UniProtKB/TrEMBL annotation:
The name this protein goes by in its record: 3-oxoacyl-ACP reductase
InterPro entries linked: KR_dom (IPR057326), NAD(P)-bd_dom_sf (IPR036291), Sc_DH/Rdtase_CS (IPR020904), SDR_fam (IPR002347)
PANTHER family hit by this protein: EG:BACR7A4.14 PROTEIN-RELATED, ZGC:101858
Family label: Belongs to the short-chain dehydrogenases/reductases (SDR) family.
Pfam families in alphabetical order: adh_short_C2
Domain of life: Bacteria
PROSITE patterns: ADH_SHORT
Lineage: Bacteria, Pseudomonadati, Pseudomonadota, Gammaproteobacteria, Oceanospirillales
Length: 253
């Protein structure tokens, strides 16, 4: 079933992880996918794996002028924009008085400003198409983590920004939702998931007993963008194997 035939879908952070998995799923369902990221070579690798036509467009989402130029180019190329997936993100750890100020600025520039830039620049075309936005937040945006205050603050901002946009643009026919994954196998988490003690802690706290595959998050993003979710807006949907239901308590024997 090709739910996205003749639809144009923009995915940021598309060079790996959740972004790449999401792009592949949209492509399998007939979409023309615009792959956005800072590393052209990674985007080209993903484009080569897609089943449908794709457009590689490097851009830094932390720069509003680049994002505005991207949206104009996509609209001129295709004539419309139907779905925006704001997935690009970075994570930095450390206690607030120990971590570098530059780390805070980078996390806010990419994770928060990048989402704002994408939504602002794409909104006129999404209103015209009565399209959808899916932001990639995190369970860290609906709860706290030790040593991740910068990331928590950024994802918390995305969580509430998603709600606010859904309220402001519901009458325009634009649906705005977010996914809130827990630990997911990706390039960004690769080093963390090499830590056996940390992985064991995740397994004890996630009721399903494992971290997520990127494809499992991508499938939910595609659902939220689809006609099947046509009356779903303003939702921050955990994709966390039951973690948020458990309040982070370890599994009982």
């Amino acid at each position: 079933m090709n739910r996205f035939t003749d639809k144009v879908v923009i995915v940021t952070g598309a060079g790996s992880g959740i972004g790449a998995a999401t792009a592949r799923r949209f492509s399998r369902e007939g979409a023309s996918v615009v792959l956005v990221g800072r590393r052209r070579e990674k985007l080209e690798e993903v484009a080569a794996s897609l089943e449908n036509e794709a457009f590689v467009r490097p851009a830094d989402v932390s720069k509003l002028d680049e994002v505005e130029a991207l949206m104009r180019e996509v609209a001129e190329r295709y004539g419309h924009i139907d779905v925006l997936v704001n997935n690009a993100g970075v994570a930095k750890s450390g206690k607030v008085h120990e971590a570098a100020v530059e780390d805070w600025q980078q996390v806010m520039a990419v994770d928060v400003d990048g989402v704002f830039h994408g939504c602002r620049a794409a909104m006129p075309w999404l209103i015209a198409s009565r399209g959808a936005i899916i932001n990639v937040s995190s369970v860290s945006g609906i709860g706290g983590d030790w040593g991740m205050s910068f990331y928590n603050a950024a994802k918390g901002a995305i969580t509430n920004f998603t709600r606010a946009l859904a309220l402001d643009h519901g009458e325009d026919g634009v649906r705005v939702n977010a996914v809130c994954p827990s630990s997911t196998k990706s390039e960004m988490s690769e080093d963390l998931l090499k830590n056996e003690e940390l992985v064991s802690a995740f397994q004890q706290r996630i009721p399903m007993g494992r971290v997520a595959e990127a494809e499992e998050v991508g499938d939910v993003i595609v659902f939220l963008a689809s006609h099947d979710a046509r009356f779903v807006s303003g939702v921050n949907l955990p994709v966390d194997g039951g973690l948020s239901a458990s309040n982070g308590q370890p599994r009982q024997a």
